[in-house]
From TrEMBL:
One of its GO terms (molecular function) is oxidoreductase activity. This is Oxidoreductase. Signal peptide: none annotated. Keywords: NADP, Oxidoreductase. It comes from Talaromyces atroroseus. The lineage of its organism: Eukaryota, Fungi, Dikarya, Ascomycota, Pezizomycotina. Belongs to the short-chain dehydrogenases/reductases (SDR) family. It comes from the Eukaryota.
Length: 317
């Protein structure tokens, strides 16, 4: 059953701490930004649109009753690898510490399309660009972990879709775009990649990792939450059907309220009681078990090596 005892009020004072939330202008990301800011943290809101981000920041400050809340817009377009690198470099140029990176942004069940970088849009938005963004922020996270043990953390927001919509081989490295597969299989593919990314990060940079960096990492399944993702999944069902079904699913309890969507992320990124690096967090603020494929260390390493080589060849590393 969900751990309903956890709430944002259980978090300590986060004054002096700095966090980044991708996709922070809407949905679960916005709730995550609000939760961290409410505890005194400085939060960078990663988003494509400055206008939408500034509106979201204004909304959060009003809702919290804290006009002084420290929330900063960070331009980040995850459909553009160059943007991911530039955003990380901007952050590193401005800040000397980073206590938490929440790779939250994502899309689900959209029709097949390619980004300007020629990758399927779900795989790039949900996994590839987050991998690249994270890689360029690792030096900042490592230095923070060394000077302030236990405070530097990475959360990759995934989904139980990693198990429900999967390929028998897990990750198809020779065909990552999966053009011939369904929209939801492509979604599950990207979400499995998120967990495998988390697994390898822990193996290398975690408290017991090869580099002993001491960064605590987690993969978080936020739950089945009523967000715009459900309305965007037109690769799964027509928009008119989604508009009808979403309120029905919310009413009968299949979809939960948006406010709950950030609970597990907040637990993993800022609660001192969470120390099990590499864990898979499920609703709400509980340690769960991912699929067998998501626990495959060899697959995680192969995915990391494939991704590293691809970005290296493209000149982004």
């Amino acid at each position: 059953m969900p751990n309903n005892a956890f709430s944002v009020h259980a978090l300590p004072d986060l004054s002096g701490k700095l966090y980044v939330v991708t996709g922070g202008n809407a949905g679960i990301g916005k709730t995550t930004v609000a939760g961290l800011a409410s505890r005194g943290a400085r939060v960078y809101m990663g988003a494509r649109s400055a206008e939408k981000a500034e509106k979201a920041i204004t909304d959060i400050k009003r809702e919290l009753g804290k006009p002084q809340a420290d929330i900063v817009f960070l331009k980040l377009d995850l459909t553009d690898f160059k943007s991911a690198v530039e955003a990380a470099r901007e952050l590193r140029s401005k800040e000397t510490a980073l206590h938490g990176l929440i790779n939250n942004a994502g899309i689900m069940g959209v029709p097949f399309s390619r980004t300007k970088d020629e990758y399927e849009i779900q795989f790039q938005t949900n996994y590839l660009s987050h991998w690249l963004f994270t890689y360029h922020l690792l030096p900042l996270l490592q230095s923070t972990a060394l000077t302030q043990p236990g405070t530097a953390r990475i959360v990759n927001v995934t989904s139980d879709g990693h198990e429900r919509f999967t390929l028998k081989e897990g990750i198809r490295l020779d065909d990552p775009n999966l053009e011939s597969e369904s929209a939801m299989v492509r979604y599950g593919h990207s979400k499995l990649a998120n967990i495998l990314h988390t697994r390898h990060l822990n193996a290398v940079y975690g408290p017991k990792g090869k580099e002993s960096s001491g960064i605590i990492v987690a993969a978080v399944h936020p739950g089945h939450i009523d967000t715009n993702l459900n309305k965007q999944a037109t690769g799964m069902a027509p928009a008119v059907v989604l508009r009808i079904m979403t309120p029905i699913m919310k009413c009968i309890g299949i979809l939960d309220h948006e406010a709950k969507g950030a609970l597990s992320t907040l637990f993993a990124i800022a609660d001192p009681k969470f120390t099990e690096s590499g864990a898979y967090i499920v609703p709400y603020a509980k340690i769960g078990k991912p699929s067998q494929m998501a626990k495959d260390d060899q697959l995680a390493e192969r995915l990391w090596e494939w991704t590293f080589k691809m970005f290296q060849e493209m000149g982004y590393l």
